[in-house]
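Write out this protein's structure.
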Amino acid sequence: MVDPKYPPGQTFQHFPSNQLQKKPKSYLFLIIIGVVFLIGLIFYFNSKEDNSNPETIITKNTEVENFNGVLEEKKYAIVYAFQEDYPDFDSQGFSEDLINNANDYFTEVSYGKMNINYWYVTSIISNEIPNELGPCVGEHWSSYIVNLLDPLIDFKEYYGIITIFEKNTENPFWNCRPHGTIGRLEYNTNEGKIQLSFVGFPKTKTPEKPFSPPSSNILAHEIGHNLGLNHAYMLDCNDNEGNKVTIGNNCNFVSEEHYDPMGSASKEHYNIRNKLILGWLEKNNVPEVTKGTYWITPINSQFQNKSEIKGLMIPKKWGEAEFPEIAIEFFSHYFLEYKLINQSGFQPTKGVFIRFGNYIEDEQTSGWYTVLLNMHPKNSIIYTDYGAPIENMYVYLEKNQNYTDEYNKMVITVLDANESGALVEIQNL
């Protein structure tokens, strides 16, 4: 059913109150025709007010863009899928809270280069949906939703669709975790072939409250997928004797790292490699280097000037004892970043994080993994099962600590670190 407050064709958008100016009535037909000057003034002010109309302020997508490097608004259509009708549920207020929180987050982490907008479109209940179809059946569900919305909206204005659905543990079509498409899928619509991303949010009803808003942390993770990002993992390695090491010939990806939203859905900033390929950082903010001393400002602080270095790329050569079967294909560089850590459950601190990632200029590498290295493998415990408690995540370098890559004949040392940045030295052995 379509929300009667927002019928088809009436787009509800968010804008700051100072942009929503009330358009005064025009008294043009009451003006004496012979007073040419006065008529000119009226047309002047009318055209000036038209420029402040929200429909002309917003930049709308009229073409399907590549998600790699697009710096603009991402507008989502929101659909609710329930097991039964909830006439008192405030779908508009629910949507507004969710997207406002997400917009604040993305504006911050993108350094003001991306924002989120939405329109709540409709709500449906399970008995209106064909059997053996539900939010947990991937492309079949997304095709159904596109066909449902096609008469209601112009898909050229939208980046994707968010489905918030009532979880039903007894029905496999309605029982799944949050999910999102990596990039976008192509659909035939009334506007022609359109690429759209999808996000699915399961919600469980409680006696006290029909539904609580989806976590903006989870939305950061799933929209990260929509932008083309894959998961951020940690690396767990042993040497031939079974001792924990940073890199060895017996390594595994373990769970998702806790310092990146593409890991455990934390509300941290995306890592430096992902920000670079998304276009939120320029190459001069993440230079490729092999030696030297560099001042790096925190990745989770805003720019003081455009020439700041937010991180470093270091080309990585691989030895035979360094799991080359996955490394050569996926990881071309070390990526260094400095972060001020102030997460719930963590001691506030500062650290230089080192990851493996792939970066090939002018090629699409956004869908590949990143892997966080453990700088203190003998002194930290990383969780191995999804959702397990984290006992000690001391995986970063602090002041006067270093990391040695003997195969690359390189040492990375943190010479200094404070609230404004870290001084990092790269030496060749």
